[in-house]
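Example record used in the benchmark description.
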Amino acid sequence: MCPAPKTGSTSGRRRPRGSTPLPIKHQLRREEAVHDDADWTSGAAGPSASPISFSLALDDTPTVSVEGRPDGPLRIALLGQNGVGKSSLSVALSGDMDRTASVDCEGEGYVRTVTVDDEESTIIIYDNWRQDLSALQCEVCVLVFSVTDRRSFHRTAQLRLLLRETQPQTPIILVGNKSDLVRTREVPSQEAMSSAALFNCLYLEISASLDHRTPELLECAVRLARGQSPWPPGTTAEDMIGEGQRESITSRAKRFLSSLVPRYPRERDVGKFLRQKSRSCHDLGAL
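Model output (structure tokens):
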């Protein structure tokens, strides 16, 4: 039997005061400096890392209007590894380079009113969460990776598996950022498209620093949040994709799976040499 705690010698020390847990919405806060391992480790690596959970909060279910859309602002969450450009992308999507002008009252996201397809909507863009994602609620999840970092591309695949298990109805957009850094690219466009096809989600390549294709991403996210097709009315996915990029889902899946098999070192070195010879610019923003 454990001895009872001593209570007679506490005159020189202050006893800790009890604390009341914060509401869920206050537990989620933006953090600019987040350790990558603590943010993404599954919890087995150490006691300080918290597992990622995307389960919905049972006591904070968003209300839905008669038309089937959420009754309130459309919430768009940007998820991905640190350093892929989520903060820059959120500023570009908010439409104002002045960060303080678009931060909401709780400091958790950026608020903006947009007009898409002649319909006005208020959106909230969340660009970073520290550890606790168990209460994450949003209409659209945008998984961001850098085309110059293959590790960040693999992290998005892990997140998609978690989202498909816990939030199968939440639309997902896979975004490859930093497309302007041509010579340092590590993830080919076709490989990313094949990966997105396996999960039946939309894929876009953008450059947040150059504001390239960010308006298109915003419009697609708003349409998906409304429960509509991501493409403009009267158009299809084939209309938005070039002729050279049209390919069946089966072919994309086969290419993606074959890319997972390592090639011979000599073949890989030759291919890398040929790719470098065909690239003439490191940063398209310098042109």
